[in-house]
Amino acid sequence: MLSKQQILKIVSEKLPDFEPESSLQSLEGGNLNHVWRLKGSSRNLILKMAPPYIAANPEVPLDPKRIQFESKALQLFGNRELLNPLASREIRPPKHVFYDNKQHLLATEDLGHLPDISRLSNTEISPQQAGRRLGSFIGNIHRLSYNDLDLKKQFTNTSIQKTRREVQYNAAAEYAQRGGGTELKAIQSETQKLGKDLLESGCCLIMGDLWPSSILIDNDKLRIIDWEFSHFGRPLQDVGHFAAHCWMLAHTSSEANRKKMFRELWQYFWESYQEGTESNFSHLYDNQEYRDTTTHIGAEILIRAAGSFKNGYVYDGYDKGHPMVKEAVEQAASLIRADNLSDLWQADFK
After folding, report:
1. For a tag on the chain, would you pick the N or C end, based on fewer CB atoms within 10 A?
2. How remote is the C-alpha of 191 from its chain's centroid?
3. 3-class SS of residue 231
């Protein structure tokens, strides 16, 4: 791993006019990478360096080249690039500053200290506004990139998909067992099949990691960060990922109005997503995509409620016998067998 002095040297080489006004400040919340803020006289930077493992789980290896996919994804929103029309005041990713391919170091604009979408009730934006903007944004990315052969060559992020297969899909039945689940053979069969299928190239560019920590709120605006999982894949890994986290946020909320808020957030997202994909929706979402979306939702709930990514999230602190964990595992198992997104909200847990 580079020292802070070595990182500052790279910054000075890439940005000779940049004048640091602070030392590197480590930021919390980065699961995949080491992240720092560097204050400057005219602007601040966010620096991300990818180690050859998941930063929050060093025992899980991960290709450090993943950060180049974030660099390429952010540049797609630049001037005269394919996704530039989608970047607006209301919603956009951070601006790309530079990328050092040798050291796997990415610099982006500093968006500041912003709450993520799990804090939606304390911000100026409503569930309807947030859901519709985000759904339209993701839907349009899928639509504009649909069957784009050039993007397919650029964004074949196979190493990430292999890691997801091993850590999320192949291990789903084990996580269910930890949480007191049953029907383990059915869970194993469905999730392992999905993990294998997702190693194949898909049909559109996906953001890949659409969970609360990637969706920041700046007053009435949304900012989408952490694009390392971007991949020419299948819509389910964006749609299903966001759906799973809306459900988990609702499930673990003690207040009825917050449960309602996260359910509405999902509903507005899904409506706007379909509108954003326009005539390509039927190509992006056939019956198999619906079935695989619910399987992904179940797998994501399992890894968060009883698996490798439980710590630091909404089920942290609950032991495996706690009713909240049991309910989440039951819901995950039900969704893995489902074929309709409406099944996401069938269970009314108290």
Report:
1. C
2. 19
3. strand
